[in-house]
Amino acid sequence: QEFANQCFGNRADNGKGRQMPIHYGSNKHNYFTVASTVATQLSHAVGAAYALKMDGRDACTVTYFGDGGTSTGDFHAALNFAAVMEAPVIFFCRNNGWAISTPVSDQFRSDGIVVRGLAYGVLSIRVDGNDALAIFSAVQAARRMAIRESRPVLIEALTYRAGHHSTSDDSTKYRAAHEIELWRTERDPVSRFRKWIEGNGWWSDEAESELRSSVRKQLLHAIQVAEKVEKPPIADIFTDVYDSPPSNLREQETLLRETIKRHPQDYPSEFPR
Ligand SMILES: Cc1ncc(C[n+]2csc(CCOP(=O)(O)OP(=O)(O)O)c2C)c(N)n1
């Protein structure tokens, strides 16, 4: 339900409707909000990991990013900082070959990402990103090392982005349709895992359709509930950054309210004013 609230940016959304849809976060679940600015989450994760270490907690942080994220300065700063401060953080890179339309060959000439971790003195693991069990085992080992040895670990999961980057992207404009099809049909990690559990007699078509229909019902319910919840008030746009808002922000709020009054038809009525 929390996730649906976030997607609808309603009053119950932890982010008060300020984040892009699916950029969910939750204090309750120790889940830091997904960062819209690519790779900024890496240094946050290092800081949080260092705090866990100082507090003597038996825990680590894990942060996820794409190959595109490794083409930013933040990636390098975060890796080096984590290595030097011996912060218990897992850097999980999904190297799917593309940063939106930029292929990895236009991003770097190193042998993927794993060598960069090694260069910074960070234990680094390369794993088949389309093999669920291999991922499970790599993450389990990384977590153990990060916590027991109090140090960062980098995981490079080799995979392919079978979908478009987002709803505004059409990836057939920059890569061959047959390539996408191949990964979808022959290398899909979900079908692969499903085949494995079916082969072991732990799953079946009936179990699959039962699960799918029950999850679908739960999702539709969550969406229907989220749709009906009121939107956050306009005032929320201007809060939470400054203890007392500076004059330029106060001016902007006044301007916005005057504009809404002048053009009420252009502003959705479900936003409490
Ligand atoms: C700092 C920053 N620069 C640029 C963008 C625009 N942008 C959004 S996603 C993206 C590519 C990210 O690549 P990757 O993490 O590999 O994602 P994938 O294409 O695999 O989904 C870019 C450049 C951004 N959000 N933030």
UniProtKB/TrEMBL annotation:
<keyword id="KW-0560">Oxidoreductase</keyword>
<dbReference type="InterPro" id="IPR029061">
    <property type="entry name" value="THDP-binding"/>
</dbReference>
<dbReference type="GO" id="GO:0016624">
    <property type="term" value="F:oxidoreductase activity, acting on the aldehyde or oxo group of donors, disulfide as acceptor"/>
</dbReference>
<dbReference type="InterPro" id="IPR001017">
    <property type="entry name" value="DH_E1"/>
</dbReference>
<dbReference type="InterPro" id="IPR050771">
    <property type="entry name" value="Alpha-ketoacid_DH_E1_comp"/>
</dbReference>
<dbReference type="Pfam" id="PF00676">
    <property type="entry name" value="E1_dh"/>
</dbReference>
<dbReference type="GO" id="GO:0009083">
    <property type="term" value="P:branched-chain amino acid catabolic process"/>
</dbReference>
<feature type="domain" description="Dehydrogenase E1 component">
    <location>
        <begin position="2"/>
        <end position="233"/>
    </location>
</feature>
<protein>
    <recommendedName>
        <fullName>Dehydrogenase E1 component domain-containing protein</fullName>
    </recommendedName>
</protein>
